[in-house]
Amino acid sequence: MDSFMNLAKQGYAAYEASQSDVSKTGGSEYNSPDNRPQGVSRPSFNHDEVVQTAEQHGSGDSGMFSHAMNYVKSNTQEHEEPIDEEHVTNSHQEAYERGNAGSLSAGSMGSAAALQIFKQFTSGSGGGGSKSELISMAMAEASKLFDQSGGAASGSKQDAVNGAGMMVMKMLVQSKMSSMMGGGNSGGLGGMSGMLGLASKFM
C-alpha cells in the first residue's frame, strides 16, 4: 500500500503546483457554483457531455453510458459508503498488472478501471483532468476492459460501466468530505487517505 499512498501524495503535489502556476487564490476550487460545500455536496456533471465523451473513447453506445450516469445520480446513498481500498487496489492489480480482469466481477472491473484512470490523470497522462472528463474516461475504460477480457466472471458490461462511474463519484464525494473534516487522517476516513489523495485534485 505504500506505493499507492506515495502515488496519491505525488498526484496531489502535482495538482498543488499546477494550481499555483495559474495563479488561483487559495480555496478557489470551492468557489464554483456547483462545488460550494453545503453538507455533503455532490459534484455536478454535464450529462450529455459525459455521455458523448465516454462514447467517443469507449466501446459502448450512448444509451449504456447514459444509463450509468442515471444510476450514479440516483443512488446517492452509495456515494458515502466506505470504499474498500484494499479490494479496489487488488482488483486493479489483477486487471492491469496480471492481465486477469476476466476473473473479476463486473463491479470490481469497473472499480479497477476507475482507479486506472485516476492514476493516469494524476500522473499527467490523462488529459485535461476535469471531473466530467474523469468520469467519462473511467466509464469508457470499463467498457473497453470488459470487451478486452471477454467479459467478467459475473455481471454485465453495463454493471462494469456503472461500477466505474460510481467509484469516481464515491472518491470525489468522500474526498470532499475528508477535506471538510480536516484532512484524510481525521476520524474514520484515515485509511482512505491514499485514494482520497488521488481524488482530491478533482475537487
From TrEMBL:
Top-level taxon: Eukaryota
DUF7721 domain: residues covered: 46-126
Pfam families linked to this entry: DUF7721
InterPro entries from the UniProt entry: DUF7721
Region called Disordered, residue ranges: 15-44
Composition-biased stretches (Polar residues): 17-35
The name this protein goes by in its record: Beta-flanking protein
Native species: Lentinula edodes
